[in-house]
Amino acid sequence: HKEMKPFKKDFLWGSATSAYQVEGAWNEDGKGPSVQDVKEIVPDTSDFKVATDHYHHMQEDIALLAEMGFKTYRFSISWSRVIPDGDGEVNPKGIQFYSDLIDECLKYGIEPLVTVYHFDLPQGLAEKGGWENRATIDAFVRYCDVLFDNFGDRIKLWLTINEQNMMILHGAAVGTGESSIKSLYQQNHHMLVAQALVMNLCHKKLPHVKIGPAPNISAVYPKTNNPADVEAADLYTAIRNWLYLDIAVYGVYNHQVWAYLEENDALPDMEPDDLAILKSAECDFIAFNYYNSSTVEALPSGTERKAGKKDQQLSDSQEGFFAGSDNEYLPYTEFGWQIDPTGFRTTINQIYSRYRKPLIITENGLGGFDKLEDGKIHDTYRIDYLRNHIKQMNLAVTDGADVFGYCTWSAIDLISTHQGFRKRYGFVYVNREDFDLKDLKRYRKDSFYWYKGVIASNGKNL
Ligand code: BG6
Asked: Name one Pfam family in it (predicted).
């Protein structure tokens, strides 16, 4: 039995949500539409108009998180609630909502961990070309400036962009749409420049606060030990993971990704100062989301893609380079996502040894069908998933990785990005279905009581 090192004394235990998946009130109090409000909804799943109706249950919801003993709560700010068209007037009611939310967290000693942008670009900006349009960089910097002015006194931890890598790899699922590789990496480049400018602005304006990126990072396994598969995995790791962290930490484009973009005729157009801007910014910590590992194999040119059918998260492929594949050693959730707690330890150690920055996990969790019976939800599958991942995180801490916090996904039930309300992630059950809003009443799941015990024992009682 291995002796485990304890988690830090002030370890930030908590959980996460995002604005469009939880708030509802999609057009209330001056909020403008985001791309999520107007996108084509996956058949048989709910739209995002009411969601969990957190906008109208905010105090009740935060009280439930406080009851679990949360040390942090990660939420995102809806850009189009604060600036309805993305680059015009500021909406005072939007500012008020987030100000109240922050105060409510602080009232219970919960540290707010704020994502400024989580998949919900204002529709007004999308209509002007979205991230392909360089002007979106200025709009983003201004939006963040407004946030820093209004909340900089109370927020100590900021996250820039949620899962920028998934927006590039899986745009269709998360509301950015389908584009050519050239266009995707142009959008990506603008986001990277915008992020660098915002990190610099934050450091200048608010020297005592900390800011970091929040990509989805996962260890990538080669399907076999055939060197061609290993090479494919290595390239895919650079494209999926290191591109985003190399820029946030070292301020440089990953060399393998650069060569890959060159080969695919997809290098972004740049302004003369762009590389210097990227070089000038450095994050204070690395936040990342982890759900499972990835497995890839080589995909020689002219081969038909055969892998990655079942698991939507692994379905990336690029002919001539790599194809996502299933991993026969790993089980699946009911929604076809593979489960790999050991890969979590590997991922933490890979990130820490490459960058040596403090780490916080900003999402980790299991989406499943939950059943409400006599006011109870026996979600042992969720508890098992989280327990096994927290154990592996503890092993990584014991290995020596500097981890200062952990957020599950999600604090309360919300709408999945593309699989509807029936795919639940929360500790708190919200009584509605995809097409029946019912009473939106909140119920504590079994995992609620379990996580409370985890936090109270600083991760000892799993
Ligand atoms: C992450 C996102 O990709 O995974 C969340 O940051 C999302 O917004 C979560 O909800 C789970 O994915 P899904 O598709 O099951 O909602």
From this structure: Glyco_hydro_1
